[in-house]
Amino acid sequence: MLKLTNLSRHYLSDDVETLALNKVNIEIAVGEFVAIMGPSGCGKSTLLNIIGMLDNPSSGEYWFNGENVAGYKEAQLAAIRKHHIGFIFQNFNLIDELSVRDNIELALLYHDVPASERRRRVAEVMDKVGIAHRANHLPSQLSGGQQQRVAVARAVVGGQSMILADEPTGNLDSAHGQEVMAMLQGLNEEGTTIVMVTHSPAHADYARRTINLFDGHVVTEDVKAA
Amino acid sequence: MFANYFLTAWRNLLKNRAFSAINIIGLAVGLASCILIMLYVKSESGYDQWIPDNERIVRLHTAYESPGRAPFLTVRSAGRMMPAVRDYLSAEIEDGMRLVVWDTTVQQNGEAFSEQVAFADSSFFNVLNLPFANGSAQSSFNKPNDLLISREMAQKYFGSTDAIGKTLTVCCLRGQTVELTVSGVLEDLPDNTHLALDMLVYMDTEVFGQFPGVLDTWTSVNVYTYFKLRPGVSLEQAQLRLTWWVDNESPFLEFAKQNSGMLPDGTKISDTMKHKLMRLPDLHLDAHNDAGNMGDLTPMGNRKLVATFSLVAVLILVIACINFMNLATARAGQRAKEVAMRKVLGASRAQVAVQFLLEAIGLVMISLLFALVAVELVLPWYNQLLGKVFEFRLFSEPSLLFTLLGLGLLVGLIAGSYPALVLSGYLPGQILKASKSNESSASVKLRHVLVVFQFAVSVTLLVCTAVVYLQTQHANNLDLGYSTERKLVVGIRAARDNLDSLKQQWQAIPGVQSVVYSSEAPTQDNENNNFVTLLGSNQGDKPVEELLNYHNMDYGFFQAYQVQPLAGRLFDKAYGSDTLTPAEQNQISQAAAILNEGAVRRLGFNSPQEAIGRTLQISASGDGLNHLTVVGVIPDIYFRSVKFAIRPSLYMLNPQRFNVATITYNQGQASQVTAEIERVWKQAVPMQPIDMQYLSDMLAAQYQSENVQMQLFSVFSLLAVLVACLGLYGLAAFTAERKTREIGIRKVMGASVKQIMLLLIWQFSRPIMLANLVAWPLSIWLMLNWLQVFVNRIDTWWLLPICLMATLVSVCIAWLTVGGNAAKVAKANPIKALRHE
Ligand SMILES: Nc1ncnc2c1ncn2[C@@H]1O[C@H](COP(=O)(O)OP(=O)(O)OP(=O)(O)O)[C@@H](O)[C@H]1O
Ligand SMILES: [Mg+2]
């Protein structure tokens, strides 16, 4: 599905150059469930952002479905992104002013989906993540676990084939964390590719493969026996 | 503690430079506008209140309101009213006096100056107790022809106020030159009075009683009549008694009964002729309601205009205050932690509120400083525009200083109260725990309501400005019905004796096309109205009798003004029978008359043609009659201001009534011609300065005050719009900032930069659209009312495109204001926005 070769990303701020990613080589196949681990500041989020096409690499290649998207303009990236990639964040990133239903619908709003179709698909996915009874609530009226379920629903409602999750359980207690992990696993079993950053070895265990980053390098890759 | 407040406030001011600038600029513009308008309002109000006993001094106004006719309103009254009223209402009235004001020429050391002389009854100072610079009412104003002059006049003619005993030669009081001896010097009148009295003469009532239509008349209104009421008598009481007396017991009633047509059976005098008293302090602002077109000696004010400008001043300030409130509450999140910490450390809600109030007041005071500088800078321009001399001496006038400080304090309290209330109400627990925006949706809604209000006001002002502008243009460009090009108007009263030779000499000047005389030139109004009997007609058992306004025109007058007859002919020397000659007692003299269409209709003719050849009878001066044969009919022309409807008019040719000459000159020869005209005049009338004006200037002067109002109104409404936009800009910048996370999320979901921008712009357009919805009906209603007073008004359908334009303008302004911020935020990389804090 995607392949990174010699991919680097450095930041320049206040005349200090930070090498967040240093010649990373990673390949992820369709249907995989990959966990990315490593100490704080090692470049996990940076890597995920680049994979999610929210950010551009400084050098190296990024092959996505056979296209090298490394030098693409923002608009080109956005066009690929919106059809293929869904995001889940540690802090949920729901829009406070919108109801659960509207937050999920947002992911379809920019996809030229007719209103009736949107409504149908939102209802379907709300059922799937078990949040249908809260459809008209505002995010502030939900627990953290429920909010993250809304975020998951939003990430998949557009039929995205890959979900990128940056510490999706970081703000949740263990019970709610388990719930979200089970949901991701379910999605993976249905064929969705999942790349997840986590600090929790227990949650990394849900993945088939774990990539360990340290200081911008891939240190090890553990593949779980089937 | 205050040092700490001050430090926090100062740091906040610096930290949020853009917001501070928006607030300070907005408030400064608002305060400066307010101060400027206050100067105007202050100068317009408080007129005549320095005159002793002003609250019980009244003036008698007269109005003729015949059914079916445009009312004839004047602030003057008939000469016989004052003594009769004073006698009869002695229980209510302490004293009364009349003023007769004439234009004269004062000759001094071989030079001639035009001056206005007021002749007053001996009781003048019993009513208007004006201060003397030299002399007193008892010693200086006690016999006929005693002359009082103002300090300024004394300086002008004698070089000192020590002028008592000196003489002035005053020319042409009813044809006579008289020597008047100065018997006293009056203090110069201040600016805030409706009076204009540079020369005041003790009126010889014997002599003036003999002049027709001045003192000895019940119907001609040529004097200003003032009364002083007895203490404790209300205006209403006096008014009631006066009206009752006129209708029931006055000698005027006897007079009216004897005059056919004046008092039809079953009517009262007050049905058609109203005598109205108005308080002295109200004269400047309200007399214009009673004035019609015979106004005061000084420019009259207008209470509605003063109120309108006051309202605009308040609105601009309110808009600036709203900016402050909106920005302060929008930014409240930033200050929330500070509030929470202060409260955790023991501050009470009141203490926090006071802190924010003080901050607001401080900011307003800084703005006030800028406003004062701005006022100083624009004052010369403002003075020139308004033709006033506003002084702005802050430090020598402590009352002004305190007023301004009070204003600043008030504005600070208003602007600061809401933010203080909101911010001080934060609960520290919630704030320190929550990381997201903790603003209640109520305060967001209120902010929207306030923005809607600001823009509703702005759009309304825009619409009003546009309508006022169009109406002014409309009046300026109205087809008057005659040619106004290349014309000079010269007053010729002083040359009555040699009009013919003057005309010949002027006509001989190269470049002069024509010289024609008339009783009035366009824009010069008269109230010469006469009852005209249409001979050979029947209306019941009497012939048709109608009141017509009349003018006297020379041969060639209508030709010079390029007015074509609709029927018949214009005055023509060739017929030899057009000129009106005074009729002897019991004699009838024949002459020609021209009517306008209105008069043709008023007399009941169905077409101009029908009127030709008919005879009109009018009473001539002396006791004779004139029989006027209608020889021509001309279209209705705007002889007087387009502010008034065209009256049914009768044009005659009585050379004795000629007052002005209209000189038409050839293109491009204005300067040589004017010089020659003046030279000829100086030879013919050496002791009288020439009174010459371009007709175009006279026409323009009619709209002078409207044009000034228009300019002021536009400037202040544009300022209001500007201040509102400043606020919107600040709000947009802030909201965009606050929305970065939402925008980031939307972008991750696939929204394009364009979509995000549209979203933001739409969010800001919504309140503007709403504001337009409010502004449309409001401004249409206001303007329909305003237009009502104009006889010649723009088509009211104009309101619709104007409203649409105003909407477009306001939306465009909003887009421009918001667009920059929106673009910046929409383009930002979403990663930053989404990183967890
Ligand atoms: N916008 C930026 N500008 C400059 N440096 C940045 C920027 N974003 C990240 N960095 C730096 O790049 C490095 C990698 O950051 P990144 O956010 O990817 O770490 P992370 O592994 O996700 O850490 P955490 O576990 O704390 O989320 C860090 O040293 C960080 O300080
Ligand atoms: Mg991270």
UniProtKB/TrEMBL annotation, chain A:
CDD domains from the UniProt entry: ABC_MJ0796_LolCDE_FtsE (cd03255)
Keywords: ATP-binding, Nucleotide-binding, Transport
Domain ABC transporter: 2-225
Keyword ATP-binding belongs to the record: yes
Coiled coil: none
InterPro entries reported for this sequence: AAA+_ATPase (IPR003593), ABC_transporter-like_ATP-bd (IPR003439), ABC_transporter-like_CS (IPR017871), ABC_transpr_LolD-like (IPR015854), MacB-like_ATP-bd (IPR017911), P-loop_NTPase (IPR027417)
Superkingdom of source: Bacteria
GO terms, molecular function: ATP binding
Xref: SUPFAM superfamilies: P-loop containing nucleoside triphosphate hydrolases
Name of this chain's protein: ABC transporter ATP-binding protein
Species for this entry: Bowmanella yangjiangensis
UniProtKB/TrEMBL annotation, chain B:
Signal peptide: none
Keyword Transmembrane helix included in the entry's annotation: yes
Membrane disposition: Multi-pass membrane protein
UniProt keyword list: Cell membrane, Membrane, Transmembrane, Transmembrane helix
Coarse class of the protein's main subcellular location: membrane
InterPro entries recorded: ABC3_permease_C (IPR003838), MacB_PCD (IPR025857), Macrolide_Exporter_MacB (IPR050250)
Membrane-crossing segments per the record: 21-41, 305-329, 350-379, 399-427, 448-470, 712-735, 756-778, 798-818
Domain ABC3 transporter permease C-terminal as annotated: residue spans: 311-424, 715-817
Subcellular location: Cell membrane
UniProt domain MacB-like periplasmic core: residue ranges: 20-242, 469-652
Name under which the protein is recorded: ABC transporter permease
Pfam families: FtsX, MacB_PCD
